[in-house]
Design a protein that fits this description.
By secondary structure, the chain is of the alpha+beta class. It has one domain. It is built from 4 helices and 9 strands; from the N terminus they run ααβββββββαββα. The strands form 3 sheets. The protein has a 5-stranded antiparallel beta sheet. A two-stranded antiparallel sheet has the order 2-3. Strands 8-9 form a two-stranded antiparallel sheet. It is globular and about 50 Å long.
Length: 173
């Protein structure tokens, strides 16, 4: 079976999973039905949620290209939903929660919520000083997608992020 990766926005990904029907455990299965394609063989278990599978030969991190965020191996996120606390850690390039493996933040959230959401706005992490913040604060929003920022060529991602945050702060005043 040949596998190809496609990049979609968080909103498109969330909308796709709202179309999920019983027995569809991957984006591939959902799309096969929506596109009227014959049901193909199931994806390899390593590509789906399930027992922890460590990818060898990689640094174990998770990288989000759209927002230029790298979650290093061992990075922990947490949240509360309906009074219950949840936490997940990056291991082997996957999110691990309660011994289950998830390929994305969205899939992680879908395992505990009863509707769709933007997980960047609900999961938190602790910074170097132990303060909790939403993981959305880690995103480096490309200038072409950020309405509050002008194009800042040649600047490092942290500096660009600080300037974008400062512009957002002054826009609120």
């Amino acid at each position: 079976m040949n596998i190809r990766q496609i990049l979609v926005s968080t909103d498109v990904f969330a909308a796709l999973w709202t179309k999920r029907q019983a027995g569809e455990n991957s984006e591939n299965a959902i799309l096969e039905r929506l596109l009227g394609l014959p049901k193909g063989p199931p994806l390899p278990p390593a590509m789906l949620s399930g027992p922890i599978r460590i990818a060898t030969g990689q640094d174990g991190s998770i990288y989000n290209r759209m927002f230029d965020v790298r979650f290093p191996e061992g990075f922990e996120i947490f949240r509360t939903y309906k009074g219950r606390d949840y936490s997940a850690t990056v291991q082997g390039g996957r999110w691990i929660m309660n011994g289950q493996s998830f390929p994305s933040l969205f899939a992680l959230s879908m395992a505990i919520i009863d509707s769709r959401e933007n997980p960047w706005m609900h999961w938190k992490y602790r910074d170097g000083k132990g303060r909790a913040d939403f993981i959305s604060a880690l995103r480096n929003i490309p200038p072409e997608l950020d309405e509050t920022s002008s194009h800042l060529d040649g600047e490092s991602a942290p500096l660009r992020k600080k300037k974008t945050a400062a512009k957002k702060q002054s826009a609120r005043r």
